[in-house]
Write a structure and sequence with these properties.
Length: 147
């Protein structure tokens, strides 16, 4: 009897509680930078807003248009800016993390479609297993964010 009651309570809890990142993470202003002719490596940018009360982390990004997508950061090293791959991107509770030129970005490899007029689909996966598919229009840097 107790066991049945417990199952009912658990079922009610899971039905009522917000579903982790799905209710808390908001993707804003996604875009992919146009690549010069002949280049097949492109950078993707977006803002990730965490409206929840727990720290979340972006773990992976995948695109049907790229052989792989990595999370990169830019760091000063010996007076030069260098890209470095990171394993996860933390998004503290109640904050927005911006991926933008000169800083954090998504790096897409072997992409042929990063020309203005196209868009790139990407699936972002967070540390609680939640995934979101986002559409990244391709832009030139001088076209700005165009919110
Ligand atoms: Cu990079």
């Amino acid at each position: 009897m107790f066991r049945v009651l417990l199952l009912v309570v658990l079922a009610l809890l899971s039905a009522c509680s917000p579903k982790g990142s799905e209710a808390e993470i908001v993707i804003e202003a996604p875009w992919v930078r146009e690549t010069p002719p002949g280049r097949t490596v492109a950078a993707g940018y977006l803002d990730i807003r965490n409206n929840g009360e727990q720290r979340r982390a972006l773990l992976t990004a995948e695109s049907p248009d790229a052989s792989r997508v990595e999370l990169h950061t830019m760091e000063h090293e010996d007076g030069m800016m260098r890209m470095r791959q990171i394993e996860r991107l933390e998004i503290p509770a109640g904050t927005t993390v911006s991926l933008e030129p000169g800083g954090l970005h998504l790096m897409l490899f072997d992409i042929e479609t990063a020309q203005v007029g196209n868009h790139v689909n990407m699936t972002l996966t967070f540390d609680d297993g939640w995934e979101i598919e986002a559409r990244f229009p391709v832009r030139r840097p001088d076209m700005g964010h165009q919110h």
